[in-house]
Design a protein that fits this description.
Elements (H helix, E strand, L loop, with lengths): L1 H20 L3 E4 L2 E4 L11 H13 L6 E9 L9 E10 L3 E10 L2 E11 L28 H5 L3 H7 L5 E7 L12 E8 L7 H12 L20 E5 L1 E6 L9 E11 L2 E10 L4 E13 L2
Helix pairs in contact: 2-5
């Protein structure tokens, strides 16, 4: 019983920390400030900047939800300093609105972002079928890094990567960093949020954007038999795109199905499709990242 209480406490703390990251402070009209979190690296986690940029854009739009976003990472963020988000209200049409956001630290842009919003509308529908995978209940929880590798990481990163973090991941295939043999460029894993929050569609999209940055670019390394915990590996996100197709809940499991069609020129391209338990395609992602092996 004590073990269960301890687990829930750890999950609750991580969830509260994540929600605090999603709270932006209004500074002026179209300007907001967000805090950062130390995840044990020398830069801000890209998913955080992506989610906060989306929330800043959403704060300037009424009665419309984001359906797509595109962002470019320009500089490594400093987790010891706040991030200022400057929103440009580019256009408000009858059906669509456009916003551009620039994330700034120390007087320089670190991220540029564009999002499109749409009124609720009926239309034609089709989607790719969800891959055939075991249900999440039949897949054991994963601790992303095992043994000494995990123990050698900074404590702040350990808290975010183990299975008691704000999200729990259950890998079907392709997500074990301890496997160093070449594998097909495909990855499937279930995930869900640890914590009780209202199903606000704006916050849901921000949290999904945040977690979509996990595991995506790493798919491009699978055919090469290398792991992101390799100390000779340099990885950095260059861009991130996302499309929201249907409403969803983070209270239940979602399947993240990723593939990587190409790696070349020191860059790897990865794509992802996110399904709910019922097989509905709720979002799609794409990301290119720098992948360099230091000689």
């Amino acid at each position: 019983m004590y073990h269960t209480v301890n687990i829930m406490g750890r999950q609750s703390d991580a969830f509260k920390e994540l929600i605090n990251l999603m709270e932006l402070e209004p500074l002026e009209v179209n300007m907001f400030r967000g805090v950062s979190r130390d995840i044990g690296t020398n830069r801000v986690f890209g998913g955080q900047i992506l989610a906060q940029s989306l929330l800043a854009a959403c704060a300037t739009v009424e009665n419309r939800l984001p359906h797509s976003l595109h962002g470019y990472f320009l500089r490594a963020g400093d987790h010891n300093a706040p991030v200022v988000y400057n929103v440009d209200r580019t256009r408000d049409g009858r059906s669509f609105s456009s916003r551009r956001v620039q994330a700034i630290q120390h007087g320089q842009p670190i991220f540029t972002f564009a999002a499109s919003f749409q009124v609720d509308e009926e239309g034609l529908e089709h989607q790719f079928e969800m891959p055939a995978t075991p249900p999440p209940e039949d897949v054991p929880p994963i601790q992303e890094i095992q043994g000494a590798d995990f123990e050698n990481l900074p404590e702040s990163m350990q808290r975010w990567l183990d299975r008691f973090g704000p999200f729990e991941f259950r890998a079907v295939r392709g997500a074990d960093p301890d496997v160093r043999a070449p594998r097909p460029p495909f990855k499937d894993l279930w995930f869900k949020l640890h914590g009780d929050h209202t199903d606000d569609p704006v916050m849901n999209r921000a949290l999904l954007a945040y977690v979509s940055d996990f595991h995506l670019v790493g798919t491009a390394m699978l055919p090469h038999g290398i792991s992101w915990i390799n100390t000779k590996l340099m990885i950095a996100s260059l861009d991130h795109a996302m499309w929201f197709h249907r409403e969803f809940s983070l209270h239940d499991w979602l399947l993240y199905s990723c593939d990587s069609p190409n790696t070349t020129g020191g860059r790897g391209l990865s794509r992802g499709m996110i399904y709910d338990r019922g097989g509905r395609l709720v979002a799609s992602t794409a990301q290119e990242g720098v992948i360099r092996v230091r000689r």
